Every structure is written in C-alpha cells, then in structure tokens.
Amino acid sequence: MTGNLIGEQFDTYVFDQIRARQELSGAGFSSTLKSSNQIQVQNNKNAFIKLASGVNFFQQTTVPTEKEFAATAGSGVLDEDDTVCSSDNQEYTGLSEGGKEKYKLISEQIKENNKLQLKAANLKLRNLGLSNTQIKQLGNKETLAKKAILFGGLGELSGGKITQRTGISFTDSIWNPTKAYGLGGNQFGKQPMPGITSAKIDCINRGSIRSATIQLKAYNTFQFQLIELLYLRLGFTMMLEWGNNKFVNNVGNLEQLQTTLIEDMFFNNQGYSQLDVLKHIEVYRKKYSGNYDGFFGRVTNFSWDFAPDGTYNITLNLSTLGDIIESLQINLPSPINSFGANVDGETNAENTIEQWLNDFVKNDTKNKAVWGNGEYINLKSGNYVKHQTYDEYEAEQFKKFRSENRYATIAENKAFKAKQAENYKAAQKDNSIITGKLSVLEGMTKENSYFVTFGELLSQIYDCILPRVENKNPVPILAMGLDEKLNVISAQPNQVSFDLNTCFIKPVFYAPGVRPPDSVQKSWMKDFFVQEKIGTDDLFYGQLLNIYLNFEFIKKTLTRNIDKEGTLSLFKFLEGVCDGINRSLGSVQKI
Q: Which residue of 33, 99, 149, 585 has the lowest C-beta tally within 10 Å?
C-alpha cells in the first residue's frame, strides 16, 4: 500500500443520508407504493446557490474610551508614564496630562477618518447613479450588501429571510428594491435582474483547500457596476452556499430547507473568526442531513467580458482561507538576550524556533532519554538501555570468574561473590552494567541526537509563531489539525528510518526472531505504527505526528527557507520537512 491515507472518516449523518437515499431510490419496487412525499422529492427537487458579499463601505471605527485607550500603554502610541495608577500600581485610575492630550488627538483623528470614509462611501453610491434619497436608504453599514444577495437572481435580506424579486418596474429609476425586471433603468427595454449562472467547487491539496469558480450574468451597465462594487473585490470575504431545497431527512421524512448561515449569522457583526464560521457550516450540514454545504472564502481573482448581446459575463474566483498557507510569510522574532555579533560586526540572533530547540539541549543536564510525555527524545542517552539486575550481574560475573578460574576453591568462590555487591554499585555509577544498546548510535553526537515529534513542532508553530486574527476570541490565522490519531499515513511492516540525521520512528519488526531492544519498546516513546483488526483483516498504518524529527534537520530546513529579511515561507518550510521524511523512510509515504 503506497501513497497517503490522509483524511477523516465520514460522519454518521452522511452514512444515514446515503441509506435514506438508497431506500428512496428503491421505493415502489415491492408491494408498497411510493408515498406522495417520495414522489415530490424525486420529481420536484431543485438545487440552490446563494452568494453574499462581506463588503461594507460604511463601517465606522469606534472611538475608544479613556480606559480602553490607556490599555494600549507600551504599544508605541501611549507610553507607560501617560497613565496614572493607584499607589500599589494594581489599578488604573486615569490618564496623565500628556496621556489626555494624546487621547484627544487620537479621538479627533478617528472622528475625522470616519467622516472621510462616509464621504467616500456616499461617492461610490453616487457614481452608481443613485439619487440622494436612495443613497440615504442604502448608506447604512452593510445595507447595500443585504439588498444585493445573489440568490434566485438578486434577493434582499429582511426580517431574517431573503425576499425574492418579482414583477416589472414601470418607473425610469435605475434602482428598485423589489422588481425582477427593470433594474438598471429602461434605456434598453425591460431587462432581467443579474444572477448566478453556474458555480463549480473544487477540492485541492487532498481537500484541505477548496476553490470556487462562479459565473455571473449582468444585463446592463448599472447591474455590472453594482456587482463590481460588492463582489469583484480582491481579498474580500464572501459566503457561498448551495444544496437541495427539499430532501428526505435521515429518518425518511420529507423536509424543506429553511434559512442558512447567510440569513442567520453572516451579517450579525459578531466578530466571528474563520474557525467559527467553519464550525457553523458543519452544524448546518448536520442539521440538513448533508443536503447543505457552505464555502467561506476570499476573492482571489475575477474577470469579465462584454458580450455581443450587450450583457456582461463575469467570472469570480474564490478560495477558502486555508490557501493562505501557500503564500504566508511569517516573521520569526528573536529573544532579546539572543542577539550577538558575528566576526564582521553584524548583529544576528537565533530565531524563536532555534532558541526553543537549543534551550532543550542546553537544559538537558541529566542526559534524559524521553521527556515531555514522549514529545522529545535523546537517542544517545544512556538512560535508554536496560540495566542488569543484581542477580543478572552476579551470575554473569561469576560465570566469567569460573571460566578463568576453573580450579578455584569453595572459599575463593565465596570471596569472589562477596565482592560483587560492592562491584555492582560501582558499575551502576559508570553505566558499565547496561545491555541492549541501540545499534544505530554510531556517529551520533550531542548536537544531532535530539528529536521532537512532528506534532509538537506544529504545536509550537501554532502557539508561538503564527500571526493571530484579532476579534473577540483571537485565533491564529491558520488552523492546524493536531490530533495524532486522525493524521494517519500509509506504512509498511518492518519499516525504519534510513537517515537519523533527519527523522526516527519507533521500530516494530514483524519477522521471526527479530525484535527491537527492550529499551526502545518499553520506553515512553510515541508509537508510529498502528495495527488494528477489521473483522478478520489487519489494518496497518502510521501516525504522521508521531514521527520524530532531528533538531539539526529542523534548524537546517529553517535556514534554507528564511530570506534575507528574516521572513519564513511556512509552506516551503513544512514542504521541506515532509520531503526529508519521505527520503528517510524510503519514499513509501509520499507525504
């Protein structure tokens, strides 16, 4: 078995929905006739697509209170001496005169910026051709985005539901809130409203990233400008949803799909993070028995052309926020005490990852073998090997004595045995009573004998390196699945690492008479190989996050992927780590 075994098993509700659809497809072949609901689902089920824009031209910056402003002390705007604290320095009591002056200046600047933003937003609407009255109606937060949701043409979110446009507008106004025909004026006759003509969703990188290609149609210049203003915005977030309008749920009953995320939370302004939205999408998938799916992403590209019939064909490309890893550049800050100068007098410093690895080596004064619940190991440590018991030691030493002194008297034998207790204590101190040493330690030094699990490395990057999205619950800009039981890869029996300068896996041999040293098998090392029984068959695989990476290999891979400005390409770094693992394990996994 080659290649990856990457991914999670299907959720229970997916299996239940498959069973419900199979039962629906087989209905009517026995003596039982199809019900009216079953006939309705099979003959009157329609797909839907919704697209909502996260563009808000009227979002204002809130002027902070004095207390909120004081909390920024030390950030570069407000100095520590600009605040006044209680005598015990435990409680904020106010701003100093200098702090109040800065607060006044900042507050006035925020208010002025809000005025300029409001003016620019109104100008955008005026350039669309809207009247002052219409601008007042639409010029409030995300009102325009709510009135221009691409669903069944162009719908409006009101009262928690999306209202569909119907009928024909008989006025010459380019904007109307309810009519399906006449949006954009009557210069070229009654033209239909704009809408989505198709959407294609692709999974890339084994499903960790999804991309969407959406085709739109606009029938006049106003409609095109409206879509351009709200949707053709590089980097802005969009919410795409699709599914079936009616379906048989997992207990076999006919169900009508109700409201979705766009209606229920997308415009709530609650500061949801990307992970929050993804969790809500999964909740709705389960709620609608797998007949709903959502896509929270950003605009990566767009294009359009003017067709001979006077319409606009628009292509919008979206990508889930996970694709940011391929272009994410992160700074690796250096601790203050790590700065030094090289022979040329240039200032340099270890980055935080190097500092973390070097500190572990430096602090290992007891020559530990395994620590941190198995996340870290030192293959050169004498603590790996198995120490003989006193009985084993005495028997071995007496056997040697007898082979060299075949004619020793009973008294001489007793005298030799009497000394063994003292000799055993001395041997314990100099580790001369150890057995079962690893046969892979030749050439290993203190510098290249330390290893950390892939999972712990990713955890350190997630907790200490990744930039965070600031909202009510700040989270790193990327999500990482760090469950070692879910991140599985293919593995071969008797597989070992061929390069300990790169990685190490806890060995398990399936050959008669061959077994790893007890010192490895009985240690706290994390298991790489997993063998499970599925009926009468064996399922054999490896746990990716339990691969041990050599400290020196990590540092060298870091160095290769850090540019002159000290910026690390995270994707290239992780790609380099995976390439090294593949080479060391014989390119079986192809991670």
A: 33
